[in-house]
Write a structure and sequence with these properties.
Elements (H helix, E strand, L loop, with lengths): L6 E5 L4 H12 L3 E6 L2 H11 L2 E4 L5 H15 L4 E3 L11 E2 L2 E2 L2 H26 L11 E6 L3 H4 L5 H21 L4 E8 L5 H4 L3 H9 L10 H13 L7 E4 L7
Parallel strand pairs: 1-2, 1-4, 2-3, 4-7, 7-8, 8-9
Antiparallel strand pairs: 5-6
Length: 251
């Protein structure tokens, strides 16, 4: 797929990895519709990059369906969907205050896993009506897992479970959608400088960066965005999870 002819929807696009992806895609010449719950910032970024915005709750079927219809109407179609919306909590299975609150676990699964699937399935429904290119391709879906899917740490039970689910749905979804010419890929980021980490303080950030073998620093969201754009253009990439983590293995 030609990035300059891509019409992309990006969830979680008002900050972090999603914002970086929306900005990079627009810079590369793609049409972009930003999906997020943060209306003020989402609209501001969309206006800045010449994109579109649709207020979206990824856990809500009607909200995502409306966003897809809006995006398709404004861009003409949808050929790429990049799922970056997600939340993270730090709670042990049993801690000083008792067992892990069930509602917090369910909420994490709902946003990170169910929300990802909700967006992917509805984006695919839009993509299937696209005219195929010479490769038979109609679109590409890129989901965001995490190295926590494979190397989950203490206090990450909900987050790791949710991201493990995202990694697990990659291959079967790719197989499901192959006959329709829709590829499915997943990116598993390591420790990136996102708003969740920005508030931890420079000392903590330095400690986290020191654990990364090479380069010994936190990931730049722009690097995630570059990988997402590469996936769009590399038509033979399908059904795989790509780690982008500086060779970090959490232990």
């Amino acid at each position: 797929m030609d990035i300059t002819k891509t019409a992309a929807v990006v969830t979680g696009a008002a900050s972090g990895l999603g914002e970086a992806t929306a900005r990079h895609f627009a810079k590369m010449g793609a049409q972009v519709t930003l999906l997020d719950r943060d209306v003020a910032r989402g609209r501001s970024i969309a206006a800045e990059i010449g994109g579109h915005f649709a207020e979206t709750d990824v856990t809500n079927e009607a909200s995502v369906q409306a966003a897809m219809e809006t995006a398709a109407d404004r861009m003409g179609n949808i050929t790429a969907a990049i799922n970056c919306a997600g939340i993270a909590i730090a709670v042990k299975t049993v801690g000083r205050d008792g067992p892990h609150p069930l509602d917090a676990f369910q909420r994490t699964i709902d946003v990170n896993l169910v929300g990802t699937f909700n967006v992917a399935r509805l984006a695919a429904a839009q993509m299937q009506s696209n005219a195929p290119d010479d490769d038979g391709a109609r679109g590409v879906i890129i989901n965001t897992a995490s190295i926590a899917a494979f190397d989950g740490q203490k206090g990450q039970i909900a987050y790791a479970a949710s991201k493990g689910g995202v990694a697990g749905l990659c291959l079967p979804m790719a197989r499901d959608l192959a006959s329709q010419g829709i590829r499915v890929m997943t990116i598993a980021p390591g420790i990136f400088m996102t708003p969740m980490l920005a508030g931890l303080g420079e000392d903590v950030q330095a400690q986290l960066a020191a654990d990364v073998p090479c380069p010994a620093r936190l990931g730049d969201p722009a690097e995630f965005a570059q990988l997402a754009a590469f996936i769009v253009g590399a038509g033979y990439l399908n059904g795989e999870v790509i780690r982008i983590d500086g060779a970090l293995r959490m232990r």
